[in-house]
Amino acid sequence: MTIVNDAAIVAELTELYMKYEDALCNNNLEVMDELFWQAPEVVRFGLAENLYGSDEIRAFRASRPTHNIKREIYNLKVVTFDSNSASVTLEFRRVMDGVERQGRQSQMWYKFDFGWKVVSAHVSLLPI
């Protein structure tokens, strides 16, 4: 039986997502790698890049600019579908080239025997 939004699992995933958000805003590559599935099947669609597999994602993160990467998140929603799968969505504000931009992010998480991992991610900006 599928239980949607089991409170304990929502809390666990929210804590993991906030760990990811902190790592993202502080460019902690080790933690970001730890939370993403290390497999050729993982996908991350970014602002201007389509990344397939953990090697491409890792290379992108290692080469991205780290200046002014902090952001404010809001409308964080964690939805669990059973004890092994969840979606995380949010909106964010970030200053880019002196202009405040709004964006959105979605992630699919799956709980493997070795823990929760992001298996798919998407980030996009709203038009100015």
Concise synopsis of the structure shown:
This protein is α+β, with helices and mostly antiparallel strands. The chain is built from three helices and six strands, in the order H-H-E-E-H-E-E-E-E. It has a single domain, classed as Nuclear Transport Factor 2, Chain: A (Roll), CATH 3.10.450.50.
Largest β-sheet summary: 6 strands, mixed
**CATH uppermost class:** Alpha Beta
Number of strands: 6
Q: Largest beta sheet: what is the strand line-up?
A: 2-1-6-5-4-3
**Number of structural units classed as domains:** 1
Q: Which secondary-structure class do the elements indicate?
A: alpha+beta
Gross CATH architecture: Roll
Output the number of helix runs.
3
- The residue fraction in helices comes out at 25-40%
The overall pLDDT, averaged over residues, is 95
Broad shape: globular
Order of helices and strands: HHEEHEEEE
Radius of gyration: 15 Å
Q: Low-confidence parts, pLDDT < 50 over ≥5 residues?
A: none
The amount of beta strand, in percent, is 35-45%
- Enter the CATH topology name: Nuclear Transport Factor 2, Chain: A
N-to-C terminal Cα separation, in Å?
44 Å
Please specify the SSE layout and strand pairing.
Layout: H1 7-25, H2 29-35, E1 43-45, E2 50-52, H3 54-63, E3 72-80, E4 85-96, E5 99-112, E6 115-125
Parallel strand pairs: 1-6
Antiparallel strand pairs: 1-2, 3-4, 4-5, 5-6
Helix pairs in contact: 1-2
Organism: Dulcicalothrix desertica PCC 7102
Protein name: DUF4440 domain-containing protein
InterPro entries: AtzH-like, NTF2-like_dom_sf
